[in-house]
Amino acid sequence: MSVLICLTRALCVLLGVVVVVVVAAADAATAQLRGSRSKPTAAKFAREDAAHAPPRGWNSYDRFSLNVNETQFLTQCRELAKLKQHGYRYCVIDFRWYQDSDTQEYSFDSYGRPIPNPKKWPRGFKPVAEEVKALGLEFGVHIMKGALKPAILKALPVLGTNATLKDAVDESADGPCTWFPDFMGLKQNAVSAKFYDSIFQQMVQEWGVSFVKHDCVFGGPSTYGEPGGWAQIQMASNALDKLVTASRPRAIYSLSPGDYAFKPQRLTEVGNYANMARLTEDVWDNGGFFYDSFALAAAATRVSEAAGLAHARRLPFFADLDMLPLGIVGGPDLPHPTAKCNLTAPQQLSMMTLWSISRSPLILGADLTQLDEFTLKVITNPSVLRVNTDVGFARGAPVAVRDMMSVWSVDYEDGTYVAVFDLSGKGLSGITVGFTDVGVGWGNTQCVVMDCWKDECEKTLSGGGGSGGGATEMMTGSLYVPEVEAYGVWFVKITNCKIVS
């Protein structure tokens, strides 16, 4: 079966095509309704620990950029702790925590390792990490590719060797980070490996870091992304492996940035080394994510399934659609003023649904002290979070894209979850989607269909389900999609199916 994906809206319009993406015909059916597809067991469904679910948490970048300090960070972490019952548990400092915001000078130790800027982090990171962990959360830190140029120029020694950073630095055109040239990539040699070992020993053993976001190593023009990035990924991953103990699991290793020329084959390689990797450039609230993110998520899902990522590989792995710009985001030194998310309510529901059903990590970027009721409901909807959980069995997959409408589905113990997205910006009306298209029974199958964004999917059914016009309805043979607003989504659970004559 041929597969065609338009990577951008412009390309779709230019080609004037009807796009069809079929990941798999439903190999369906429990109780004579789902072919050979088996449901996940309750034990698998309950497996929501860090190793088997896409990470959820908060990152400082979307609200504070390079300026976040200890007080601001811990304030956000205390608010994040209120969301830990929903699986949000990683509180992460983004870049330039080692740089003075006024003088632009960098802080690093006698071995060239970045250390917290004393103005921003007067106590350093260890007591901060201890406070974060006391909240029941995990502490995360962003690092850049390689080593700081000022430390290299000083020829500082590499801990555990008789060599200096000058023996490690990659002085070729692949060396500097293309967008932050004060960081230089390292050659893949024993000295460089020791430098990465020393960085992560300090972070993990001394500071208490359990989430590492490694930037300027993944996105970029070459097959393996940023020039020189592949060597950095391998050395960093190996360094993290060495720090695993019976009481200390491997820190989550996240790769960044992505780009809109993303090559899906990268996932099959980095899936052996990292837990998550960005597919996109920075995603903000301008609506552009509708076209690129859907196509990238679809491609990543197919590659991930084919390669057995998250299950058969050494590490659980998740394709990352970037942070969620929901709530109050933006600020100084950011391409976004401080303001409430500019996406419409339907767009926000679509974003959260796509991120969840495609098993993207859910990393919030908002000012958590100013969460409004709507945003709080969006990021804590239990049915949406359920499809984001990796249950050791099912991954959400696109089953059809036609006429700028995208349909995704995933099987769970309590039913099949289906999301119907409008990509046209005109809304949907009078649409039907056959049960067989989403892996549920045949034409004479009757099921209860529950609207998850209307809080129906957590209710206990009685008397066979609802009927006509409500958020829970009985449907036969097909999903009869109600009107969907522009760029909106209809997200439902199909359950209690039976054969009717």
Quick structural summary:
This protein has 501 residues and is an alpha/beta fold.
Secondary-structure blueprint:
Layout: H1 9-15, H2 42-45, E1 56-59, H3 61-64, H4 70-81, E2 90-93, H5 126-134, E3 138-144, E4 147-148, H6 149-153, E5 176-177, E6 180-184, H7 190-207, E7 211-215, H8 229-241, E8 252-255, H9 266-270, E9 276-278, H10 289-307, E10 318-320, E11 328-329, E12 339-340, H11 345-357, E13 362-364, H12 373-380, H13 382-388, E14 397-402, E15 405-412, E16 415-422, E17 431-434, E18 445-451, E19 472-476, E20 478-481, E21 489-499
Parallel strand pairs: 1-2, 1-13, 2-3, 3-7, 7-8, 8-9, 9-10
Antiparallel strand pairs: 4-6, 5-6, 11-12, 14-15, 15-16, 16-21, 17-20, 18-19, 18-21
Structural overview:
- It is a single chain.
- The protein is α/β, with parallel strands linked by helices.
- It is about 25% helix and about 20% strand.
- The protein contains 13 helices and 21 strands.
- It has helices at about 10-15, 40-45, 60-65, 70-80, 125-135, 150-155, 190-205, 230-240, 265-270, 290-305, 345-355, 375-380, 380-390, and strands spanning about 55-60, 90-95, 140-145, 145-150, 175, 180-185, 210-215, 250-255, 275-280, 320, 330, 340, 360-365, 395-400, 405-410, 415-420, 430-435, 445-450, 470-475, 480, 490-500.
- It has an 8-stranded parallel β-sheet. Strands 14-15-16-21-18-19 form a 6-stranded antiparallel β-sheet. Strands 4-6-5 form a 3-stranded antiparallel β-sheet.
- The chain is elongated, with a radius of gyration of 23 Å.
- It starts with 8 loop residues before the first helix and ends with a strand.
- The model is unreliable at about 1-50 and about 465-470 (pLDDT under 50).
